[in-house]
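Predict the holo structure. Ligand: pyridoxal-5'-phosphate.
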Amino acid sequence: MTFLGPWGIDLPVIDTLTAFAQAKIDELEARSLLRRLKPGRRFDDIFIERDSQTLISFSCNDYLNLSHHPKVKAAAIAAVEAYGAGSGASRLVTGDHPIFAPLEARLAALKGADAACVFGSGYLANTGIIPTIIGPDDLILVDALAHACIWSGAKLSGAKALAFRHNDAEHLAELLTEHRGSATRALVATDGVFSMDGDIAPLDEISAVARAHDAWLLVDDAHGLGVVGDGAGVGRLFPQARIDLAMGTFSKAIGGYGAYVCATQPVIDLIKSRARTFVYTTGLPPASAAAALAALEIIESDPDLVARPLAKARRFTSALNLPEATSAIVPILLGESATALAAARDLESQGLLAVAIRPPTVPAGTARLRLAFSAGHPDEAIDRLAEAVRPWVSR
Ligand SMILES: *Cc1c(COP(=O)(O)O)cnc(C)c1O
């Protein structure tokens, strides 16, 4: 490589950055941990075209196939026509297009909250919300398997961050007993439906423990909205639980992009004034907000559609005698990354797409196929998948 020096002279440089990247890549490759993009065109419903091969996808989070729903697409197109392709500025400057207020009102009503705040993405939401409400004198307890962006938010907050064992309210109580006293404020954060495991947090127990120790509760329901609790999300399954911050995304069953948090009005006002990933970033494109609103209308008016992903997942778990699915996500744990890659290749050769999920997305030794079921999967496709997965389950 050369470097254009002063007076336009090409100077050779020892490019340490490239050497560093190459060494890292070689190491990841050797451990079956290198990730590569694979362009793929998604068609409506369940098909994806990759390398000119058409596969049935079990790796999309578009659980209700709303990304291609005619009403959702029409709403997005109409919003582009009305408001343009981008929002033009931070929402606090001039990017607060008229579509955001009705979307936030609808989300708040769905969650039984005072108010809502829409963010650019789920990652931005969690990395913005958490540092807004806790800081260096505080404590945050996070489920060990919670989504990476909750951990990023915890780190950014500067609070003491501790992991409690997955779905273990007793361990949470032990940690709070030991550490709550030395912290000013405390926050408990968990996924509602776990993104790589598909199981559901016991929010009744977790909420009771949090309240007993004067800790607030944030629930990330990215995979619950539109799928569990009649589509209202995981909170609906635990009416006794008090969820102070009900966060979720438009990137999964809503079929689009963006995220939200529902809370009391003062909490939302504080977030809108102080969350750095809200203040210092451009507003979500109006088309994404309009698409989300249209998708929410469908979810609230079509209980048969909403019931389908879980029913499909259960058809699969029952075919293989696996524990009954509790969400649209079913993990097939395979252990080593190389095994998960081999299983994915095997399925792909049979026309089925199930992307291998490897560390650090999941803990070491728990590489897996993560199967995601959607309303549009015909029963025959699920039966085919079950037969293709069977040899990997009974190894
Ligand atoms: C996907 C996901 C996110 C991130 O949402 P994006 O909108 O894709 O940034 C956050 N939390 C959980 C649990 C998720 O599954």
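The mean pLDDT is 95. The domain at 32-61+303-393 is CATH 3.90.1150.10 (Aspartate Aminotransferase, domain 1).
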